[in-house]
Amino acid sequence: MRSHYCGDLRASHDGETVELCGWVSRRRDHGGVIFLDLRDRNGLVQVVFDPDTVDAFALADKVRSEYVVRLSGRVRMRDESVRNSKMATGDIEVLGKELTILNEAETPPFELDAHSAAGEEVRLKYRYMDLRRPEVLKNFQFRSRLTHVVRAFLEGEGFMDVETPILTRATPEGARDYLVPSRTHPGSFFALPQSPQLFKQLLMVAGFDRYYQIAKCFRDEDLRADRQPEFTQIDLEASFVEEEDIMGIAERMVRSVFKELLSVDLPDFPRMPFSEAMQRFGSDKPDLRIALELIDIADLLAGVDFKVFSGPANDPKGRVAAMRVPGGCSLSRKDIDGYTKFVSIYGAKGLAYIKVNDLAAGAEGLQSPILKFLTEDAINGILERTGAETGDLIFFGADKAKIVNEALGALRVKVGHDLNLVEGEWAPLWVVDFPMFEEDEGQYHALHHPFTMPSCSAEELKSNPGEALSRAYDMVLNGTELGGGSIRIHSPAMQRTVFEALGISDEEAEEKFGFLLDGLKYGAPPHGGLAFGLDRMVMLMTGCESIRDVIAFPKTQTAACTMTNAPSPVDNKQLREVGVQVRKEEG
Asked: What CA–CA distance (Å, rounded) separates 455 from 472?
């Protein structure tokens, strides 16, 4: 129905007759001449109708915003005085000769060029309208190009695209499963996969050697800006590899994506142990563009009478840390109160601080409500260890190590952005040497997943599971975890040892993971892999604030779709077919 896309027309088409289809973005009547801005996915072009083309002019007069039309006309150069350098098609226009209205449109629920006033809920309800906005469309064109580059790279590296099941069985992988009742097996349920983890390992057992997939994953967990109940992974697995092999492939892939799509040469990817990342930044995904660091000072405060500090300082599970903010004296009391409220989200009971108004003046040059509780030696030790200078501010965290890390780690990022302390555009790194387990009330839980190979022997794992490290690795970019993976367990004996450390009995392991354990018995090769969050990668590279901006039909913060009204009740007939009865909550 068309010869060209609207946005593809240029001065080189001058004099050509073209046929175009699209949506009317804007209609203007200038003294008997009607201008239509016609839009399709490639852009926008100005079309002019004058009264000489009687029928077409009459139709153009009836056209309104978002009407779908087809037209033909001749491309001509605009007068130099009215050329629009902000438009790709701004040097030319189309003199309309024929016009057909393919479909009328009701008044849109919001103006596409004033979408921000509509609110996200309205825009998600009418998502198909929101997707017409050029800036949103651009995100999905970018996403499409990114997946193309990824596929081409992995195919070039010998990886084979294999689909794995969506209907599978529930296996514990760290989040709640979405369950699907089975009609043919009453009382039994499928689960939607949290990842293709077990299947890709079994593909290695099958001898596929190198697998990849752009995979849909599902997790029933609380949402945030970079989390959705259904999301997409760039999933890959390879046999006969070590950590450096997988990390090298992944690093080359990300470099190629950035180079091809953004013309960016990423800097070096440093390696940082998990313990160092937590100690220096309070996070296992630190944003290295922000120079602020956490400094341990528990030894300086263990003997003070101030229990807020001395308590955690003498607690084996506690931590007392300081964070120097260069130029932080400019922060007002209101600013500090705001940061105090911010860290309370992470369980912090308060936010102590010292302002260094004049370092040369000694104690007289310091300002803080806590100075009276600290000894002179402690204060001097803090100033020396943090490297504080005149004009700086020092924030403190004192509590259980987990709370201090989360609170000061998040504060570090917020202060860094608030005070324009972010340096550079891209800061990648690998975080390695993760603990194998984390402990909660005497019970060990897998930090990644229970199929991760420990870096120690089975005997060492049995004797001291709390100290065991894993052969896992995460790629981090600008404070966001882009992807994570590990070398997998390929030995049935080691897998059972890990299950034992996790408190999973042989019977439970056989019931939940029997098919994997069976597969490992039949010559499983050493293997490992990695999964990237495709949505997160697109979000970062396009500069979006949320992955909802790069998912065509995302869910709201309550995991609902306002466009389709999903989830929704189903009728009793359907429920009876799958053997499910809904119990209504009383009250």
From this structure: 9
Give the whole-angstrom CA distance, residue 288 versus residue 411.
Answer: 14
Kind plus residue range of the DSSP H or E element containing 535: helix 534-542
Q: Return the structure tokens found at 336.
A: 């500090």
- How many other C-beta atoms are found inside a 10 Å radius of the C-beta of residue 402? 16
222 CA to centre of own chain: 14
Q: Evaluate whether 280 touches 286 at the Cβ level (below 8 Å).
A: yes
For the record, the structure tokens of 436 come out as 């194998």
Q: What is the largest CA-CA distance in the chain?
A: 93
| Interatomic CA distance for residues 568 and 301, integer angstroms | 56
Structure tokens at 29: 């009547």
75 DSSP 8-state letter: E
Cα(554)–Cα(125) distance, rounded to whole angstroms? 10
CA R_g for the chain: 30
Q: Cα–Cα distances in Å, from 349 out to 156, 294, 310, 463, 495?
A: 53, 18, 15, 37, 41
Return d(Cα 516, Cα 104) in angstroms, integer. 57
Q: In the 3-class helix/strand/coil scheme, how is 536-581 assigned residue by residue?
A: HHHHHHHCCCCHHHHCCCCCCCCCCECCCCECCCCCHHHHHHCCCC
Q: Rounded to an integer, what distance in angstroms lies between the CA atom of residue 548 and that of residue 556?
A: 8
Strand partners, 114: none
- Answer yes or no: is pLDDT of 117 > 80: no
Q: From its phi and psi, is residue 89 left (phi > 0), alpha (psi between -120 and 50) or beta?
A: alpha
What is the rounded distance in angstroms from the CA atom of residue 452 to the CA atom of residue 461? Answer: 13
Strand residue runs (E) in 54-122:
68-77, 92-103
The helix/strand count (H/E) of the chain reads as: 17, 22
Residues 63, 38: Cα–Cα separation, whole Å: 11
Cis peptide before 567 (omega within 30 of 0): yes
* Residues in CB range of 106: below 8 A, 6 or more apart: none
Residue 269, by phi and psi: left (phi above 0), alpha (psi -120 to 50) or beta?
A: beta
- State the pTM of this model: 0.91
Gap between the Cα atoms of 260 and 258, Å rounded:
6
User: Per-residue pLDDT tens for 149-197?
Assistant: 999 999 999 999 999 999 998 876 668 899 999 999 998 999 999 999 9
Cβ pair 408, 332 in contact under 8 A: no
> Which helix (DSSP H) or strand (DSSP E) does residue 211 occupy?
strand 210-218
Average pLDDT, the chain: 94
Q: What is the per-residue pLDDT for 285?
A: 97
CA distance 102 to 1: 11
What letter would DSSP give residue 207? T
Q: Where are the alpha helices (DSSP H) in 366-478?
A: 376-386, 401-418, 458-463
HEC profile of 127-139: HHHHCCCHHHHHH
Res 93 pLDDT > 80 = yes
CB 21 within 8 A of CB 69: yes
